Amino acid sequence: MRYLNTSIAATFLIPSLSGQVVLPETVVTASRQVEDSTESPFLTEVITNEDILNNSFRTLPESLALTPGVSVQKTTHGHGSPFIRGFTGRQNLYLTDGIRLNNSTYRSGPVQYANTIDAFALDRYELVKSQGSVLYGSDALGGTLNSITSGSNYRDYDAGEFFQHGAANYRFDTNSQSHLGRIQQSVGSGGSWGFTFGTTLKDFGDVESDYYGEMKNTGYPEQNYDLKFEFSPTDNLHLTLFSQYLNQDDIWRWHSTTFNPGGWEGLDAGTYTSRIYDQERWLNYLKLEHEPLANWIDRYALTFSYQTTQDSEYQDRRPASDQIRFGDIVTDTYGISFEAQSTVGRTSVLYGADYYEDHIDSEGYRINTVTNAVDNNRAPIADDSTYRSLGIFTQARTDWNDQLQTTAGMRYTYADTDIGSLDAEDSWQALVFNLRALYQLDSTWSAFGGYSQGFRAPNVNDLTGDVTSRSGLESLGTLGLDPERTQTFEIGTRGRSDKFTFEAAAFYTIIDDLIVRVEDGGGTERASNASEAWITGIEAEGNYTFNDSWSLNGFVTWQYGDQTTPEFLGGPEEDFPLSRLSPLRGSLALRYDSPDDTWWAEARATAAAKANRLSPGDEGDTQRIPPGGTPSYVVLSANAGWQATENLSLTLGLQNLTDEDYRIHGSGLNEPGFGAMLGARVTW
After folding, report:
1. Which three-class secondary structure state does DSSP give residue 178?
2. What is the DSSP track for 162-176?
3. What pLDDT does residue 468 have?
4. Is the pTM of this model over 0.90?
């Protein structure tokens, strides 16, 4: 796997973890401009389309499983919520080509939104940890994940040269009898224009594990399409028109239902007849990029975007209760952003502004199956709501000499909401800063560190939510909440030579006014700024190359944190562990590349310690987290690839070789048992 090493953590060294000598990569997310990853004072994980295909990853969240500092919780097989340095869901910011996907309806805790990004349609994605609030705005407490879509690469061809290229991928999973396929085609004229169209179809079957056997209703279908038209009327003016669509149906929250018999490590059985999610998302944008022939501005970009999402849930709570529930949310989001870059002496200055506006329609009902009484006024969030966010930002990077680089930035954010059905309104504002430095110690080693602030304004779900969380608790919003704020201190080191790559870092995050769900004593939990918290962690990863064929790669990560919060509303404040923090976890792999570069093979061991530091919410989540915590595990896997011809490549993944029964901490189902992933890719 060719991860661009980034998460860093301590003062110890381990063999690196990428499998091959990793060349420096250009990244854009950390500084909102193109830069060499090795010269960045930020931690940026880069995972490419090749990584996803070669390593048998099923979804975008699963492809983060070998990333230090990230734990991928799955409430069900069709969800997947990365915990990035202890934060998940709406406390992490998701982007596509720099455009915000987060909207004001996102629920708290581990949720499904990261799995609505089609990993097979991407050129790569970049993850920047503990960063993003200055350049991208609210929500980037744990980090920012930017999915960068594939294109035609029309500017790589000679001017006027007609080109066409394409690829078809197929994968079969023996464990769940799943089929995944994608076809993509590009045509165009070199230097002038390019058009790319792709579609991905997925038919996921039911997962099997040794303890449960077939976990009924864990499979689901998914359809995706994307198209991109790129046009350059002049050498320095570029236009991009993009559209992306995803649809997922019948995603069962398995742990809640009677198909979950419980029992494993003392877990409770599910009690609902059904609990089903449908998810639909559509993104469109038009982007203009210009590199004017002027000495006071290097480039600028203007982007207009429109998104619509539909998020629905159906619950049949029988036999646990005599109730059927349905909720549906449709959100239209309009966005505009502007950014520009100028150079003043040794300093590159980035500046700009962005504005997003959500329009929300929400409906829901509850039926008493005994009396047939219907309550049509139980929407999951307040109907007819509007949410607006405006940000103005700047960031300056100065190369003082060949050794020292500093980066400083700030953003002002104003957010407000009109909650139509409740005739209420609220607003918030924040000013956040970051300051980073990178020092080149010698030709191999560098050190970096800094201080950054984060900010998350309460959204409409925080204020008005009426949903079901964890193992069946009622979860309600609260008007008048304050924003969540973070301060993160970080220090790390990076090394790179012909034989190895290595990065390590330590971080400490302070969280103020954390919005948590606190029980009111009547079986309901309510949103409250009831918590102060802190998280610290270490992360390290690296790759060591023995010779042209053999290499060793691996990572290690550890987190620890507490929160001060009442166990129930109005109760005394107590110290508890933060919910679902990742235990000590790591992975080590040995890789062989054939001398003629036609085939490769890799054997990997991944392990996690027991997750036994539980919050009160974790202890009450008895369908997902076993009494006393989630057990430790060691899982063995193997991957191999063969370039059979110039245009045909084949891959084989063997997962969970010992058929281990295990689950990621906080997940609602066990991971798949033994299975093979068979993949083929044809290019033209």
Report:
1. strand
2. EEEEEEEEEEEETTT
3. 74
4. yes
